[in-house]
Structures are given as structure tokens and as C-alpha cells.
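Fold it.
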Amino acid sequence: MNIHRALLAIVCSTQVVFAQFEGSGTISHLIDDNLDNNTLQLGDNVTVLELEVGYSVGEAHAFSVSYGAMYERYALYNERNVVLQHTSLNYAPSVFGDKTTLSFRGMFMQRHGKGYYTLFNHSLWNVYGEGEYWWNDNLSSSVTYEYSRLRFSELVNFNFNEHVLALQTAFYGSTRTTCIVRVHWCTKLYDPVTYTRTVIDTITVTAGTGRGQGGGGQQVLIELQPHTQVVTEDAAGTSQIIGLIRCAQGITSTTGLSITAQYQWAINKESRYFLSEFGSLPDDELFDNSYGYEGLFSSLMLTQVLPWDSKLRLMYSHHDRQYTSLTVSDPQNSSSVKRRDRRTIVGVHVEKEFGPVKLFGTFEYIRNNSNDPFYDYTNKPLRLVCTVVF
């Protein structure tokens, strides 16, 4: 492993002078017969244009800055067209010798939609840091921390701060075997919500019936002058722990197999809600919030290196999602049954390189079995990608 890192350092050092500017352009086309993953089966063709440019300086490109923009165009539902752009800074100091590596990243991203979908426009600040230590040529441990701050332009009730801490140990065997064990702790904290409401206080008084007519009287309810009251809701929070084990084995020099098992536990879940014409929608419904469920995810991938710089991947995955607070859809909103999905994906991926040009093609068959009829669906997306590196 030290030899590999040394070779990488030599390659990078030769690029400091000649490859300080770098970039890539990508055009992709998605044929999707179920954009929203539900029984409505709204299909469309989506064309995506991406541009990424960067500049790096220092030994082995220790410091780099990059800018990227992406435009998604929908052929039928063009109100969904969206522009995403981001700027990032990366720094990887090499002051701790061969055994320890550090890397840091800061990123700012913005989403620009139109029409109804301006509702989801937001800005995102993200900071990421990673440290890795090599115990020997075959064993490494790493710790990563990531902080994200997301702010919506309109859905301000869903602004949040997110913290993700991950610990990982990786083993690289001499027989083309790789095993990775990783644990994530994730927490998302919604901002406190402050709003005003009009309040009409009332008091009850007893009206006397006149002298000498007894001590009783009639109670009268009197409304006072309406006034505005400022209300602040506490910050809602949600947390989860994710455990992952991944093993990859090189069967031959051109064939590899990897198996992944991941389980996520919901520690606590406090939802935020959006009032719409369809009623009160929780965050899980709006964003397919990964914090909203727990369960086992497993996957299997076979990779075959083909002649002429090409590669084939066959993929299978199954995800059991037990939602912790989202209930089955019900017109009267009276259901107390928690939603549960069993999502299976079978896919094939092909890629081919022609020097700086890379071609990708991916087809997937998705079957989601759910106890909520609205989310019991199939999906068969086909994606074609062409990337040019310069």
C-alpha cells in the first residue's frame, strides 16, 4: 500500500506544473417511467448538463478550488427544470508523513427551481474533514466529521443543521480481499420556529341582580381586545446510528465481487409538518427523509473488466424500510398503521473509456412493495452518460 501511495505521489507531483487547471463536462439522458416513485407513474425524459472546473496548487495538488453547475431539463414536466451550482475548497496537507493523511473540504451549494418547485429552493453550507492512519500496509483506520447547514427560501420551518460522525476500519488482504467496517452517528436539528397568532382572551364576571334580591348573579363571558402573541416552538431533532460491513473479493484478475450489509437504527424522531391543500405533510413525505425509517439494507455487486477499457457491473440490492412515524395514507387521516416498504433493485451498468471520454449506461428495475397502496410501485429508469475530462 505504501508503494501505491508513492506512485500516486509521483504522478501527482508531475502534474503540479502541467495540470493545475482541470475540468469535466457531462451530458446525460434519463428515461424514467416513474419520476416520483408512486402509483401515479408519471414518466418523463430528463436531460442533464454538468460542468466542473477546478484549479489546484501545491505539492500533489494539496489545495484546490472548484466550481460546478448542473442543469436538469424535463421534456414534459418542464416546471421541474432546475439549476444547481456549487463552489468548493479542498485542502490535503502532507505534513504527517506516510502513515497519516488529512483532508478537508468546504462547499457552498444553491438550488434554483421555478414555478411551484421554488418551494424547494435552498442554499447549503457543508464542511467535511477526514483523518486516516495506516497501522501497516494492510490495515487503516479513519475518522470523518461532516457538518451541513441547509436553509430554504420558503420552507423556513425545515431549515436544519446536520452533524455526521463516522469511524471506519479497513483491511486490504494480499489475496485481493478488502473488508470495511464503518459506523455513522447522524443527527439533524431543525431550527426553532417563531410565528405570531391572534389571541382573544376572555374573562367571566358575575352580574348582580340588584340589592335585596339575593347574593346570586348571572355569569357573563366578556371578550377582551384581540392582541398578537409571539409563539416559539422548540427545535425538533432526529438522530440515527448506521452500521455497515462491506467485503470485496477479487475472484480473478478481471472479476470482483462485493457484498454490503447496512443497518440503520432510529434513535429519536421529531417531525416537522407542512400545511398544504393535501393536508398536513410531514418531512418524510416531502423529502423521502432517510431519518424517517430504520431497517436492513443489503447489496451484491459483480464487476467484470472487459477488453478495450470497458467494464460491466451487475447489481442487486434490497432495502427494508420500517418508518418510525409515517403512517399509511388514509383519506380521513385516521390510520395508525406505520408504513413499511421493501425495495428491491436489479441493475446493470456498462462503462467504456476512449481516452478523456467516458461513456456510461445504467438500467435498473425497481420494485417497491409497500403496505401503503400509494407507494406500491415499479420503476425502470435508463440512464446514458457521456463525460469528457479536460
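Helices lie at 2-18, 283-287.
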